[in-house]
Structures are given as structure tokens and as C-alpha cells.
Design brief:
The protein is an alpha/beta fold and 227 residues long. It folds into two domains: 78 residues, no CATH class; 135 residues, P-loop containing nucleotide triphosphate hydrolases (Rossmann fold). The protein is built from ten helices and six strands.
Amino acid sequence: MARHAILQAFYTSEVWRLFRLTLIGERGNGCQRCGRIIAKSVDIIGHHKIELTPENVNDHSISLNPDLVELICYDCHNQEHKRFGYQNRKEVFLVYGPPLSGLLELVRQQMSRGDLIVNMDMLYSALSGLPDYDKPDALFSNVIGVQNFLIDNIKTRLGKWGTAWIVGGFPEKFKRDRLAEETGAELIYCPVSREDCLARLESNEALQYRKDEWRGYIEKWFEQYRE
């Protein structure tokens, strides 16, 4: 059964209908986001804080958990999913810092399903099939081409993504600020010291045969970095 059909079967089921009506009876007919009174109960949306997927829809601790369902109006629901008049509210963040500063870990802690992540390491891995620390020089033009294509999509807000994360070193202030201006991005800096990055390199078993190479990346970043 296709993804849409699986979710549709849940939202049209008797168990969801009764669950939703019970919540309305307990909470009333006001939108829990904006406070607007919704005259018809049929217009009250039961919004799952954790997006339902075919993998979790049958987990009732998620799909039928009152703590994870909000009752909201159509307008707030469209804003939540950036539909119709809300497409231009898409957020963009440019996350930057030195090598081994934990940029992707930071993004993964804050991202939501359906967000767009543009990161050179991940693109190299996707195009080469190699680990993200192994970047064949021969693929550079292909990787940078894909990166630029995705950034162009971010500039024009093309696609159905909710939030875009542009992740990289970006040590040079002029280039960093220009990209942020072109994409409408908010800057997020990972303030990790040179000493901490080098210490992380020494303890990273995946890079045990590439320590000299990555030590060079770290030193070069701090030489180029301008606040």
C-alpha cells in the first residue's frame, strides 16, 4: 500500500474520528495556536506534533497520544506545513565552523523531517559511495555543481522543503555574508577552538590514517577564518 493510502486509511478510521472528537470535547473548539474560535468541529484539525509516517502510524503512543496532538485551525495548519500563502516563510540557516566542530550533529538536533540539508561531505558520500571523509578530487566539479544547483533552489524557494540548512566551513566572512544575503539565511556559528578540533581528530578512529590531511584542513580553516 502506498504511503498516502496508509495514512489516509488511518485518518478516515473510526478510532481516529472518535479520538479527535474526544479531544475536542475535552479542550473546546478554540485553536490551540492562535486562539481563534472554530465554529464547526469538522474544521478543527488534529495536528500530530510528530509527523505520521507508514512506520509510526500504527504506534498508538504516537498516533493516538493526546500529548502529541494539537487542535488547530486550517490557517495555522497551513502555516505549520508552509502551504499556499506561507511558502515564502521558509527558513534558511547557514551553519558554519571549523572541521570536526560538530556542524552536522548540531543540525540533526534541530532539523525536522522534510528539511533540506546542503553539505559538501554528504554530497561527496552520496555521489561517490565512499565514507564522508573520503573526497576524491576527480569528483569535485560534480559535487560543487550539485551544491550550487541546490543553493539556487534555496534562493528561489523551489521545492516543498520546510527549512534549509547550508552546512560548511565558510571561514571567509565576505563569502559567508554574501551567501547568507543571497539565500536569506540566518548565520549559526559553532565556536569550537583549534585545540578542541585537534583533540577530536586524535580520538577519531575513522580518521586514523588521514590525520595529517585533516590536521591540515583544521589549520587552514583557522588561518582563513575572519569573524
